[in-house]
């Protein structure tokens, strides 16, 4: 039966207290922080039985308020980019707070990742082998320019089978763009200094959304992955694409992936999205989701809004965060969907609650 415990993680400079919730089951340990409703650690054994934490994130709580803010966090109200910080509204365009090249990234300057969430433990009434922690937050109307007051709950649960499940739910009193994801960076070697080039990635998608110089999707339909570096329909070593600048799309992203894949299958139904494997250790994580898209980001620059600066004081387990030291698998609605009627809609409306589920299933490669 899963064990759930809580401890003090630290106090921020502004006096806010952050707690760590630990879930342990089936040889797997997950740590969840109330700051940003963040996945702070996920540890499981390799083929030799050696346990290691595979989440790349700062050890010091204060460091999560630096450029490392998104590592492991629940990001919102709108994960990824909204072009020019504008969305349509009933009385004309609504202007949002911007924080990246004149665009709104991951909810704006003061997104969900910087908030301290309320937390309560729970045990599944249907399955005694599932337990977890539910984190809740109220985002008031006008938060970062977004309309409507939103009540959000993120439930992390761990099963005896080694599945970390994230269930998102939300309601609002006025229509608002809404799109949550978890921004964990994975390095299955357990070595946060090491490149993920020796990892293999499969993504269940036949198309992706190409981007412009600001990493906002280009006009027009998604492009087929066939015959491109974006074809992950067969597991591909990430070394094939890291530091490649001969492909225009990889070059725009800084020599790797920072793109949205259009997942196969029906959105709203839980299905396999991606498989990340590490042949040297045998560790593997399968990502399942109800979302229509998956953003794959390979930490292409050492200092950007996603990652860190190798010369700065940002650390992971007391060490600098290095380029390509992790890969994020962000289940999501497509970037800029509120301005793209050709994309799956990403609006939360009164009387129509938001529901989304993503599972990270740990295991060993065959």
Description of the molecule:
The chain has one domain: Beta-galactosidase, Chain A, domain 5, CATH 2.70.98.10. It has a nine-stranded antiparallel sheet with strand order 12-13-14-15-31-25-24-19-22, with no helix packed on it. It has a seven-stranded antiparallel sheet with strand order 6-18-29-26-23-20-21, with no helix packed on it. Helices cover 1% and strands 41% of the residues. The protein has one helix and 31 strands. With 366 residues, it is mainly beta.
CATH architecture: Distorted Sandwich
What does the main sheet amount to?
A: 9 strands, antiparallel
Write down the CATH topology: Beta-galactosidase, Chain A, domain 5
Q: Shape from CA axes? A: globular
Unreliable runs, pLDDT <50, ≥5 residues? Answer: 303-320
Strand order of the largest sheet: 12-13-14-15-31-25-24-19-22
Task: Determine the strand fraction and express it as a percent band.
Answer: 35-45%
Number of helices in the DSSP assignment: 1
Radius of gyration over all CA atoms, rounded: 19 Å
CATH class: Mainly Beta
Please state the oligomeric state of the protein chains shown.
single chain
User: How far do the termini sit from each other?
Assistant: 26 Å
Output mean pLDDT.
93
What class would the helix/strand composition place it in? mainly beta
Helix fraction, binned, reads under 10%
